[in-house]
Amino acid sequence: VAGPQGAAGAIPGGPGGAAGPAGAAGTIPGGPGGVAGPAGAAGAIPGGPGGVAGPGGATGCIPGVGCGSVPAP
Question: What does the pLDDT look like over 15-63, one tens digit per residue?
């Protein structure tokens, strides 16, 4: 589906997503998913690494390893 405010779509049993003036989001069933917009981005892999990034810096975690962050300069 597409219109003046953006677009959205999905493949049955497969990936889906949406995009518009506020940003974009998408997922793959059983796999990675994420969002992005004017304030930054976030994403994760189920059971795996995940993180966020924005104007203040970035933070991420790897299960079984730990988490870390990097402030914006």
Answer: 999 999 999 999 999 999 999 999 999 999 999 999 999 999 999 999 9
Which residues in 5-42 are b (16+ Cβ under 10 Å) and which e? eeeeeeeeeeebbbbeeeeebbbeeeeebbbbeeeeeb
- pTM exceeding the 0.70 threshold for the entire prediction: yes
